[in-house]
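Hi V.,

You were right to ask for the full record rather than a summary. Here it is.
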Amino acid sequence: MTFFLQMLVTGVVVGSIYGLVALGFVLIYRASGALNLANGEFVIIGPYICLILMTAYKIPFFYALIITLVFSAVLGLVVERLVIRPIQNAPVVSVIMATIGLSSLLGGAVHMIWGHQTRTFPPVFPQTPINIAGVIITPVYLWSFIVVVFLLVIFSLFFKFSKMGIAMRAVADDRQAALSMGMSVKYVYAATWMIAAVVAAVGGVLLGNINGLSPTMSAIGLTVLPVVILGGLDSVLGAIIGGFIIGILQNLAGGYLDPLVGGGLKDVVPFVIVLLILMLKPHGLFGSRRIERV
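Predicted structure:
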């Protein structure tokens, strides 16, 4: 029972980070109807910036994180202006192919600048494990979960009550209607990419503190894709709940099934779950069902 609870707690923490990263996927899909397949590279660039600021320039973690988030927002804006905006009226497949090319470009830049080796963050969180009813919780897991939940609540309130959040929802629901009401769709698109880059950077920094930092961490972009599909491509709530589901089931599979088959099953489980769910609900758990009349 203790082992199960240990796996469950770890799955909840990792799943919360998946949900945060998936939020970036959902925002861009709602704005443009396309998936940002460079999201994994957005996840790893921010942590590298944060790590360099801490190690090379001796900047405290909090201030390094703030600078990292500003850098990530600017990166998202630059990508939207230079890569996405010129083709925003092109077919969706063109936008997807552009993000694939962007993924290769950013991934190559990361390898060229920072190399291939795994790096570790200086101790940021307390190191003494916390024992709760026999379940050992590392402080970095606890704090990561608290940070992610806080950010998810903030973003939920932002989308529901803020002027920009309402504008983003309006553009996602009906772009032409939003334009007719005087909303700047270009401004909303830019804000969407900036927010997506910021949440990706936060998720990357938290994962870097948990598992270390290497270019291979960009694979989280592929891991989170089942989260987005499971929750529904256009559902913020679905991204959050899907993150918890995938994180928990993936971790339980790694703890119970990997030893039986020699490993590797943990990475396959998210895609198996998505296939099973989509057989029953093709639009995901919370995705909008689109009706087309011809």
